[in-house]
């Protein structure tokens, strides 16, 4: 090789040991001499490994180790097999931590039998988008629009819509009287809720085939899980009827994801629009991917929709530093926040309170908080981010959940992280509730 390239054998040895850079001139010599393509020689695998290694080495568990970027780059370039092994090991470690955290948070025996968790995993696996159902619902929305609205469309099918007091409906919001072919709706519901209940009935009937096609062939652990998924798919179909994909996606882009403005345009509530924003993944017509969460004042998560594959989709949302838990202090106001996870991932979040129930005197009204989060790089498309630079915006350090967060300095921590030994010190009390070993 030295003779072919007109260089010394010692220089070849230095190149092989990565002790000399491969210059552009050397790349050209190699390509000409051995009739190779430049692109075959200039592989990007090393840069890719270096970037991925840098990402995992930002985990706080490595905070006390000096890891110069040059050394990481050398490892990735010179020993790609070792780099791949480290990446796989960290991936396995992360998955085991998540599984252990979920197991510890669950009641005995709950992990394998909880239908709610199973339904959440089902929707997360599809990124909360079902193309066939969405497309059929959009086509159906066109028919309904031509008929003059949902009530007239149902009338053409022989179904009459009636609005009745809740005591007549025995406190049901919606009931279908099959014998008389009447759809009965609680007359104390607000307009968005009325429309959604009617659309849900249409989804259960006109979109039944598409829903069953999605569910058919799935191996669910229980009938309850299958029931929850069918019900959620009917709600998905209802939202797709009321906010047809192309029309909604165009409006979303034109209005900069302004949820209140979109609610006014489509006659939907803040929460209904927020739901729909998590589903915009049609190939070629994608919009910003969002994660959605809804919590009550006690911190219970009552809904979690993952349209982006976010790390807190499985069991996150419990960090008290995320302002979704603080919006109850100023109900009705929209709050924004830049977030950073322990591994350095950054997100932009909007949160606000929503209400359910009420409608008449004496009926219980429940206040919950909902939040949408997107990756920081996409925040510039949202009116809520303003002119802020995602790279320099001040962020709040949060964790997916305390069990998986290794931030040693967090004073809001409720439990220690998995895999860290708690230090005992009778003579010193730190500000944070736990002090733990670095490894």
Automatic annotation (TrEMBL):
Q: Which GO terms describe its molecular function?
A: DNA binding
- Residue ranges constituting the HTH cro/C1-type domain according to the UniProt record: 1-41
InterPro entries in UniProt: Cro/C1-type_HTH, HTH_RamB, IrrE_HExxH, Lambda_DNA-bd_dom_sf, ScfR_C
Q: Please give the biological process terms from Gene Ontology that the record holds.
A: regulation of DNA-templated transcription
Q: Tell me which Gene3D superfamilies the record gives.
A: lambda repressor-like DNA-binding domains
Concerning Pfam families, the annotation shows: Peptidase_M78, ScfRs
Q: Say which family it is in.
A: Belongs to the short-chain fatty acyl-CoA assimilation regulator (ScfR) family.
What PROSITE patterns does the record tag this protein with? HTH_CROC1 (PS50943)
Protein name per Swiss-Prot or TrEMBL: XRE family transcriptional regulator
């Amino acid at each position: 090789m030295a003779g072919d390239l007109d260089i010394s054998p010692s220089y070849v040895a230095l190149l092989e040991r990565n002790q000399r850079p491969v210059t552009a001139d050397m790349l050209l010599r190699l390509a000409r001499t051995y009739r190779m393509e430049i692109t075959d020689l200039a592989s990007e695998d090393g840069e890719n490994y270096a970037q991925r290694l840098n990402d995992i080495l930002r985990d706080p568990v490595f905070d006390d180790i000096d890891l110069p970027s040059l050394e990481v780059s050398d490892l990735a370039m010179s020993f790609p097999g070792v780099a791949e092994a480290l990446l796989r090991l960290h991936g396995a470690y992360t998955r085991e931590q998540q599984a252990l955290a979920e197991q510890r948070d669950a009641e005995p025996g709950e992990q394998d039998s909880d239908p709610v968790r199973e339904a959440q995993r089902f929707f997360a696996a599809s990124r909360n988008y079902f193309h066939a159902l969405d497309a059929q619902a959009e086509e159906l929305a066109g028919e309904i629009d031509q008929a003059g609205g949902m009530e007239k469309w149902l009338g053409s099918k022989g179904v009459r819509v009636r609005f009745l007091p809740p005591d007549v409906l025995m406190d049901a919001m919606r009931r279908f009287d099959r014998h008389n072919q009447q759809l009965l709706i609680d007359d104390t519901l607000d307009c968005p809720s009325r429309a959604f209940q009617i659309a849900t009935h249409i989804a259960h009937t006109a979109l039944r085939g598409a829903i069953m096609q999605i569910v058919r062939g799935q191996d669910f652990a229980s009938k309850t899980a299958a029931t929850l998924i069918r019900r959620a798919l009917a709600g998905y179909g209802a939202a797709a009827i009321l906010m047809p994909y192309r029309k909604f996606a165009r409006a979303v882009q034109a209005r900069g994801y302004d949820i209140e403005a979109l609610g006014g345009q489509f006659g939907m509530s803040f929460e209904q629009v927020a739901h729909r924003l998590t589903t915009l993944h049609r190939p070629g017509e994608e919009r910003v991917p969002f994660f959605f969460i809804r919590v009550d004042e006690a911190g219970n998560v009552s809904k979690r929709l993952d349209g982006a594959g976010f790390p807190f989709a499985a069991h996150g949302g419990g960090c008290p530093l995320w302002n979704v838990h603080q919006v109850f202090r100023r109900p009705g106001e929209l709050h924004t926040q830049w977030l950073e996870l322990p591994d350095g991932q950054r997100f932009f979040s909007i949160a606000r309170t929503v209400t359910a129930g009420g409608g008449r005197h004496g009926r219980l009204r429940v206040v919950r908080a909902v939040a949408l989060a997107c990756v920081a790089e996409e925040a510039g498309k949202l009116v809520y981010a303003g002119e802020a630079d995602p790279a320099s915006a001040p962020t709040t350090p949060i964790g997916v959940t305390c069990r998986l967060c290794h931030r040693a300095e967090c004073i809001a921590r409720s439990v220690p992280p998995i895999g860290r030994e708690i230090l005992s010190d009778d003579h010193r009390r730190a500000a944070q509730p736990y002090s733990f070993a670095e490894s």
